[in-house]
Amino acid sequence: MATLTSTAVADRRAEFGALLHGESTRRFLTSAWQHFVGDEYDPVRFAATTVEFNRRWDWDWVKINPRATYYSEVWGSIYDPDDYVGVVPRLVSPAISTVADLASIRPLDPAANPVLSEHLLSSRLIREQLPDRTLLQTVFSPLSVLLQLAGLPLYLDDPVPGSAAQLTADELLRSDPEGAHAALASIAQTFADYVELLVAPLDEGGAGLDGIFYAVTGTASGNRVDKEAFLEFSRPYDQQVLAAAGGSQVVFHTCRAHSHPDWFTGYRVDALHWDQFQPGNPPLDTDFGLAVVGGVSSELFAVGGDQTEVARQLDATLATRVHRPFLLAPSCTIPTPAEPESLRRLRDAH
Question: 61 in helix, strand or coil?
Answer without folding.
Answer: strand
